[in-house]
Design brief:
- It contains twelve helices and no strands.
- It has 278 residues and is mainly alpha-helical.
Length: 278
Amino acid sequence: MVEQMLKFFSSLSNSRKLSQIQLTLLIILIIGLTGITSYGMSWDEPLEIYISDQNYHLVTKGKALTSMKVPDPPFSVKDPDRYYGIGFSAPTELVYQAVKKLGIFKLSQKTDALLNQDPEVNDLRERIRVKHILTFWISLVAYFCSAKMLEILMGQQFAWLGCLIPIMFPRFWGHSFFNPKDIPFAAIFTACTYCGGVYIAKCLNPDSDRRSLIASSLTLGALIGWLAGIRPGGIIYLLFIPLGWVIVALTANNFVISLGRFIKTYALVASASLSIAI
């Protein structure tokens, strides 16, 4: 069965000039987008939108909002330590504003007449609709990075199977259509893991190109900063990188040789991540 699937994907990718990973991602994308509008709204999605408004007012007006339109919030608006980051909610809000200005994804007039009497509810539904699509799109990052990590471990022939690993977790697949916090965090966390592995490998290779190593450092730092922007706890990923480097360097007997290179480039990683997170 597996051998037949491998031959099937090989023939398709060769005929269409697409890699097996790209073809698998395309199939996942088509399946996902066909049902993306069939999902409702999770309880915390209005709060995510409110958090973006809260941060906007803090930056532009120097004061927080004193009230919110969402009834019965599970936390006080006076408790900013409980807020999640805006690493995903703010970009999706910007996309929504652009989509709204262009007149894309307007609600159908066939929707519930009672809801259409309330402009605020309709506006919220349009926001959620756009946000669900973007949430699913960012989940593809996890599929892609899982495939690239499997490619490192098992070779290019089996790499596409890595795209199926997240799908085998029903909770990840189901939440990828509507969860505004966990899915973006999981996707960028997976990207950090893949890019972190690439970065450590380049640090341990004395023949690695200097520009390529710097680019990997800045990319990894930007991803960690984005991870912390989605959830502040993501900044702890900065500790995983030196831990991973120490383990691999000691195993490869390359600790002393690569130490200087790692210290210099890790400073770039930390600087980039802290700049974006803050």
